[in-house]
Specification:
This protein is α/β, with parallel strands linked by helices. The protein has two domains: 114 residues, Roll (Urease, subunit C, domain 1), CATH 2.30.40; 286 residues, Alpha-Beta Barrel (TIM Barrel). Strands 1, 2, 3, 4, 5, 14, 15, 16 and 17 form a nine-stranded mixed β-sheet that branches. The chain has an eight-stranded parallel β-sheet with strand order 6-7-8-9-10-11-12-13. The structure holds nickel (II) ion.
């Protein structure tokens, strides 16, 4: 389908700052065909009027666990161990495959309605997430969660399952795949070495939780005599495209290792604060040239999957901690929520900016909202005054998945109904 987005204020790529400009955007089939100049022979099947609207590249949530969406607000104000083993784990034990599908559906609904068009998911039941992603029109990187010790049978069989799952959705070009060794405290060194070897053999990137809490660092030093970052380096995992979630409790030496291996870091400010883990050294990582992107983590620890809300936290907390209003600007937050996430997921040629030749992953926001008006600085608005509900229309891979606030590719009421039923059954 050819779509013309006519005379719209758009946030286009620029260096060092993104450029805000009124223009026309031409979409042909799955791609952005041109910006500003009409391509030869272009006949629009649909024209979207840009009046009173803002066009942004679809946001990229670089770390989440989508199936957990129905666990929103069930495990709050608890220590990490009580959170995990007292509340989340027992619910997970009672979960069925079908539950994971509806959980992922709820997560996708929330993300789409707040301007996210691509997410990086870590979980065990990826077939159901994949089904939800395929149907909803979203773009996703699905990371197969792995836990194991040495060459144990369970770890091996999870790896085997992972390949079967990857092969099952080869036909959908909106979905790519990574291996997700969960964390240094659920995968031992020998198992991590096996995962690294397997990933190299199969040319697959890695998505892993690293250096989230003080306890994790202490235990890693006790068990291996080094930090989680050093452990990941010596197992060979950093020789692969690597996206590290959290990196909260890291030092200068860790940051140098991350920079040396071009490891991308996903910061998840809400989850890190809510679980009492602290603040990732984002400005320090940026100063070392590390690619930092933004994630929400799962709805059991955030409890929202709204990246606009996360941008606000990201910019504000670092200004507060560093006593510096210049720290993590709105422009920097915008890049972290878009192109930096695309780079981290090896999708920077596909999405992350509004550019001709890239896939059409576009979000149209309503400017005629008190939170967006007057329209003095749209980039600042995203971090400092928007709340995500301004999202009006969403296009992913050239498909209109949401229009005028209504999601077209999913049955919203059914998702509410099913996820409520799930919690009635397994949540109490
Ligand atoms: Ni996580």
């Amino acid at each position: 389908m050819n779509i013309l987005i006519k005379d719209i204020l758009a946030i286009l790529p620029g260096e060092p700052d993104a450029e805000v400009k009124r223009t026309d955007v031409y979409v042909t089939d799955t791609e952005i065909a041109a910006i500003g100049t009409e391509p030869e022979g272009f006949v629009p099947d649909k024209t979207i009027d840009g009046d009173g609207r803002l066009l942004i590249p679809g946001l990229i949530n670089a770390h989440t666990h989508s199936y957990m969406a129905f666990m929103r607000n069930v495990a709050d104000d608890l220590s990490f161990m009580d959170w995990l083993f007292g509340r989340v784990d027992p619910i997970e034990q009672r979960m069925t495959d079908e539950d994971a599908y509806w959980g992922a559906g709820l997560a996708i609904l929330e993300m789409m309605k707040s301007g996210t068009t691509c997410f990086n998911d870590m979980q065990m039941n990826i077939m159901q997430t994949t089904r939800a992603v395929k149907e909803s029109g979203m773009r996703a990187v699905i990371s197969r969660g792995l836990v194991g010790s040495g060459n144990d049978e369970a770890g091996r069989s999870r790896l085997e399952q992972a390949y079967a799952e990857r092969d099952a959705f080869k036909d959908c070009d909106r979905i790519s795949f990574r291996l997700g060794p969960h964390a240094p405290y659920t995968c031992d060194e020998a198992f991590l070495r096996i995962v690294a070897e397997e990933a190299k053999k199969n040319n697959i990137g890695i998505h892993m939780h690293l250096s989230e809490s003080k306890t994790e660092i202490e235990n890693c030093r006790r068990d291996y005599g080094c930090s989680p970052i050093e452990l990941a380096e010596r197992t060979g995992l950093f020789e692969l495209p690597f996206i590290a979630a959290h990196c909260v409790q890291i030092d200068d030496k860790d940051m140098d290792i991350l920079a040396k291996h071009n490891v991308s870091v996903v910061t998840n400010p809400a989850s890190n604060m809510k679980l009492g883990n602290g603040f990732a050294p984002v400005p320090e990582m940026m100063a070392k040239g590390i690619n930092v992107c933004l994630g929400t983590d799962g709805a059991a620890s955030n409890n929202s999957l709204n990246l606009i809300h996360e941008m606000s936290l990201l910019t504000l907390i670092h200004k507060g901690i560093h006593l510096s209003p210049q720290c993590v600007s709105a422009q920097e937050a915008f890049k972290m929520a878009t192109i930096n996430g695309a780079k981290a997921l090896s999708l920077d040629k596909v999405c992350g900016t509004i550019e001709a030749g890239k896939k059409a992953d576009l979000v149209i926001m309503n400017l005629k909202r008190p939170s967006m008006w007057p329209n003095n600085n749209p980039v600042a608005a995203l971090s400092y005054s928007a709340n995500g509900t301004e999202t009006d229309t969403v296009i992913i891979n050239g498909q209109i998945t949401m229009e005028g606030g209504r999601v077209l590719t999913m049955d919203e009421e059914r998702i509410y109904y099913e996820t409520e039923k799930i919690m009635d059954r397994i949540g109490k």
